[in-house]
Amino acid sequence: MVTGLPPLNYRVRQSRRARYVRLQVTSPLQVDIIVPWGFDQSQIPGILQEKQPWITRTLQRLQQQQRWIGLDPAEALPTEIGFQAVDQRWSIEFQSTSAPRLILEETSHGVMIMGAIQEASLCRELLRQWLIRQGYIHLQPWLQSVSQELRMPFHRCRIRCQKTRWGSCSSHGTISLNAKLLFLPPTLVRYVFIHELCHTVHLNHSTAFWDLVSQHQPDYRHLSRQLRQAQVWIPAWVNGDE
User: Fold this and answer.
1) What is the pTM assigned to this prediction?
2) pLDDT band at 1 (very low <50, low <70, confident <90, very high)
3) SS in 3 state form for the chain?
């Protein structure tokens, strides 16, 4: 038994692509332990003991981040949504009515969802659709600004609400961005933009690609490591029905 570790759910995942053991805090209550295929799992308790300071620091940082999430993990629906990327906060209100369908309206002070609000999954889906619209409002022009700054044009931008990918770039120059980027710190969002814009020049992860990324983001390795842990910023309601 490993002593001194926080009372979390520890889940072991085997990966054929993993070359070494990696830890991920995937939610406020869970740590994933990614190990190479065939790894001797009897070594895991010792690894967790060694990584205890990192786990504790990550959880402490997560507690500070909760003010941006605006949601207790046990709650089904948010009462507040914080877009850290653009420094915005929205209060979320729910009003039960006899309307046959749910309606979302933006008010002067936040968002109001009216209708059969007892259908929590439908409320979450409505909020996800609204999140995508907010992505077009904030992320699309921001990407355009960075594109002009770096002189790296793209064809068009799409906003989606994807489970894992923060962004992608097609061979036709279409950049897809995850609406969940709105929950991330601005420095990470900008790094995702730079990463995808560099793919308009090199549609791969070759040495030439990373050299180009490095020209525009010298600390990209540090930001890339942060991005691998960025799911801790995403509120539970966003992923609840995936």
Assistant:
1) 0.71
2) very low
3) CCCCCCCCEEEEEEECCCCCCEEEEEECCEEEEEEECCCCHHHHHHHHHHCHHHHHHHHHHHHHHHHHHCCCCCCCCCCEEEEHHHCEEEEEEEEECCCCCCEEEECCCEEEEEECCCCHHHHHHHHHHHHHHHHHHHHHHHHHHHHHHHCCCCCEEEEECCCCCCEEECCCCEEEEEHHHHHCCHHHHHHHHHHHHHCCCCCCCCHHHHHHHHHHCCCHHHHHHHHHCHHHHCCHHHHCCC
